[in-house]
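Fill in residues.
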């Protein structure tokens, strides 16, 4: 039972990390686009 909980937690943590990473990429892309638009 303990192993199942650990696996579930690890999968959940990985999912959260992936979402955070995608959010960071999204913010970077948005900043880059704004920079291009402002200086284009």
């Amino acid at each position: 039972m303990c192993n199942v909980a650990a696996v579930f937690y690890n999968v959940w943590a990985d999912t959260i990390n992936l979402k955070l990473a995608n959010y960071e990429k999204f913010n970077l892309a948005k900043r880059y686009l704004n920079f291009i638009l402002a200086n284009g």
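The chain has one helix and no strands.
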